[in-house]
Specification:
Helix content is 62%, strand content 15%. It has 371 residues and is of the alpha+beta class. Strands 1, 2, 3, 4, 5 and 6 form a 6-stranded antiparallel beta sheet that branches. It starts with a helix and ends with a helix.
Length: 371
């Protein structure tokens, strides 16, 4: 009974932590922009494009949509919504009859003042996709799959409920992010390994790699003269009343936050390989076990650094096509601030991977060979 309780304790702790994070208020639930409004799903019944001005690919003006509200306090009511077109292909959307949409209804008592068309309704599809992913993971991995879903949920909630609101409040983003990563690393490895030396080995190796990445991010961001406004939508924050935020420090913290997942993966690979070696050869010395871990790390580092490169550069494919189409010289490309920021992001994360391998190998070799 006691063994079973200890075996299930990480799962219990993870579930409790997830529930706490879900219930934790961010302090921004009642943002002024959404007071006196009702957000709900609506069905497009008809559209009117007479006020839409088309100039080739660009469309501006207003599309008027006749809609039926499918939820909220005005459920079932037929009204009109306005779809404002700004001339941006990235953000604009055109609705057609029969489609579902997400709308914001401004009202006063029982009277609808206006309806703004937000976007196409995708929440149901997102839920189905998430459920399919969770079901597949549980079918293929069983209990471990459920623990992976729990780890995923804890990570999402920790970022949304702790890091994001603390950064908005002006707290030190580097300290907050390091503290959250410390909590997440311990909890995730506890779910993976339970109360085992492998948990301590992987956690220490990952944290040493994260600290290295953090120090490099803080130092090299100043050396590269990168400002935090290089991040997407960062200027929107400044213009929304958050001009006192230190965006550069937030950018620094985003570097080691983004690399931490790959660091955890590599630490797990090395720790598990050392554990298997020790299980097959119980009398192995810690030096031999450490060298085995380092060799595994050397094999994994090549693919992991490439994984980081793909992850960071995938979103810039269209931009790279623009550079090539315009014949932009390579030295100009490399010198642009946003390209330098991506280079910094990728290389600092890769250095973190290179260092986490020997860190984890040494710690794992020492801990896992002890009786």
């Amino acid at each position: 009974m006691r063994k079973r309780l200890i075996h299930n304790l990480p799962l219990i702790l993870g579930t409790v932590l997830l529930l706490i994070l879900v219930c934790l208020p961010t302090g921004y639930e009642d943002a002024v922009i959404y007071q006196g409004t009702d957000r709900c799903k609506a069905t497009i019944l008809a559209t009117d494009e007479s006020a839409v001005i088309s100039s080739g690919l660009i469309q501006s003006g207003e599309q008027t949509c006749t809609i039926r509200l499918e939820g909220g306090r005005f459920e079932g009511r037929v009204t009109q919504g306005i779809n404002i077109l700004s001339g941006s292909l990235e953000t604009d959307k055109i609705f057609t009859p029969g489609e579902p949409a997400l709308v914001v209804v401004s009202y006063q008592e029982d009277q609808i003042l206006s309806v703004t068309m937000i976007d196409h309704y995708r929440i149901d599809k997102e839920i189905l996709l998430a459920l399919a992913f969770a079901l597949l993971l549980i079918l293929l991995a069983g209990r471990k799959g459920f623990q992976a879903i729990l780890s995923f949920g804890i990570t999402v909630m920790a970022i949304w409920k702790i890091i994001v609101p603390c950064c908005l409040k002006g707290d030190n983003p580097i300290g907050i992010t390091l503290a959250v990563l410390l909590l997440l690393t311990a909890m995730i490895f506890l779910l993976v390994y339970g109360f085992d030396r492998r948990c301590l080995s992987a956690s220490l190796g990952t944290l040493l790699g994260i600290l290295t990445t953090c120090l490099l991010a803080v130092t090299l961001t100043d050396v590269f003269q990168i400002h935090g406004t290089v991040m997407s939508y960062s200027e929107t924050l400044l213009y929304s009343g958050f001009e006192n935020l230190n965006l550069t420090r937030i950018f620094m913290s985003s570097i080691f936050l983004g690399a931490s997942g790959a660091l955890m993966d590599l630490a797990v690979d090395i720790t598990s390989s050392i554990h298997e070696v020790v299980q097959k050869k119980p009398g192995i010395s810690w030096r031999e076990a450490t060298m085995s871990g380092i060799r595994v790390g050397q094999a994994a580092m090549g693919t992991m650094t490439t994984t980081l490169l793909f992850a960071y550069s995938g979103g810039y494919l269209a931009l790279l096509m623009v550079f090539m189409a315009q014949g932009t010289p390579v030295d100009n490309i490399l010198n642009y601030k946003y390209i330098s920021a991506e280079i910094l992001d990728t290389i600092v994360g890769s250095i973190g991977l290179v260092t986490v391998a020997p860190f984890t190998a040494v710690v794992g070799g020492f801990l896992l060979t002890r009786r």
